[in-house]
């Protein structure tokens, strides 16, 4: 069942109206039954307790604002979806000896390819046949872009160690096309950021010449995208124009400038209650007070909940110090751990795949509150837990 859900999670991620957490929920029910039936085989290690804690931190860090809001469940919903992965992780750990890396590898690659193909098909259909300026698919276009980019990073990370280079390479190109046509700037700009980090990280292994070639190739890809895709050209030109206006102090009718103001509002919310932050209603009231003061403008005051368009600033405003510490451990720490283990075990491909996938989300969260969406939180937690288990399995096999 885990293999089927994994395949569907990637294959239907952006290409179907069915939300993937519906399939994960079925796996959750199955895993609870599995754990009850095999409860005597479950021996928790410190590593297991750490994973359980990491998957619980989002929810735990939002308990204070949950209570202060009068027990509104919207503060806990993303965290509870992440916690739903705990029984699945424990089931995989109990069944570790029976896990087939060959089968899971095939599911990752075929599922990623089908998902990338579906995303690219929807993107081409909406942009070139319907004439839409941006791709929504069955999601809001920003989420479509982030999730398509996550498929791109997954396929690229799988590419060096795959035996299906044509399939995985084609999947990466299709996911890249879907990402570019989405016109989601946070997703598009994440691509050069992640690739630059990877090239700099690997420069000793690949050599200075290949590092320069890689950076030039990355620049060539960016230039080709700008010259051949009108949607990319328009968004890049708009971004340059908005940044110029921000530097001149003009934040009016400016998406990027609006984000800067929202971040400023989030900082003000943090100042009001640094330990745990403010509830959404308190942030709305604070923004109304701050409107017109020069700190924020009247447009920011109209944004529901003061939505900060950044996981980091949103957590700062509603979560405070406790939330930011928790965010470090459920978002940043996994990437650092995957990176460290990839250095220690360069022949284990799943540590590398986990690092690239998690690095993508670190960048996505700079410009969007990605993990506040229940489906994206479920997807992130499920894939991270799965890659961790597969990496452990590969390490155990090689020991």
From TrEMBL:
<feature type="transmembrane region" description="Helical">
    <location>
        <begin position="166"/>
        <end position="181"/>
    </location>
</feature>
<feature type="domain" description="O-antigen ligase-related">
    <location>
        <begin position="171"/>
        <end position="328"/>
    </location>
</feature>
<keyword id="KW-0436">Ligase</keyword>
<feature type="transmembrane region" description="Helical">
    <location>
        <begin position="316"/>
        <end position="338"/>
    </location>
</feature>
<feature type="transmembrane region" description="Helical">
    <location>
        <begin position="75"/>
        <end position="95"/>
    </location>
</feature>
<dbReference type="GO" id="GO:0016874">
    <property type="term" value="F:ligase activity"/>
</dbReference>
<feature type="transmembrane region" description="Helical">
    <location>
        <begin position="107"/>
        <end position="128"/>
    </location>
</feature>
<keyword id="KW-0812">Transmembrane</keyword>
<dbReference type="InterPro" id="IPR007016">
    <property type="entry name" value="O-antigen_ligase-rel_domated"/>
</dbReference>
<feature type="transmembrane region" description="Helical">
    <location>
        <begin position="49"/>
        <end position="69"/>
    </location>
</feature>
<dbReference type="Pfam" id="PF04932">
    <property type="entry name" value="Wzy_C"/>
</dbReference>
<feature type="transmembrane region" description="Helical">
    <location>
        <begin position="20"/>
        <end position="37"/>
    </location>
</feature>
<feature type="transmembrane region" description="Helical">
    <location>
        <begin position="376"/>
        <end position="392"/>
    </location>
</feature>
<feature type="transmembrane region" description="Helical">
    <location>
        <begin position="187"/>
        <end position="203"/>
    </location>
</feature>
<dbReference type="InterPro" id="IPR051533">
    <property type="entry name" value="WaaL-like"/>
</dbReference>
<protein>
    <submittedName>
        <fullName>O-antigen ligase family protein</fullName>
    </submittedName>
</protein>
<feature type="transmembrane region" description="Helical">
    <location>
        <begin position="350"/>
        <end position="370"/>
    </location>
</feature>
<feature type="transmembrane region" description="Helical">
    <location>
        <begin position="140"/>
        <end position="159"/>
    </location>
</feature>
<keyword id="KW-1133">Transmembrane helix</keyword>
<feature type="transmembrane region" description="Helical">
    <location>
        <begin position="210"/>
        <end position="229"/>
    </location>
</feature>
<keyword id="KW-0472">Membrane</keyword>
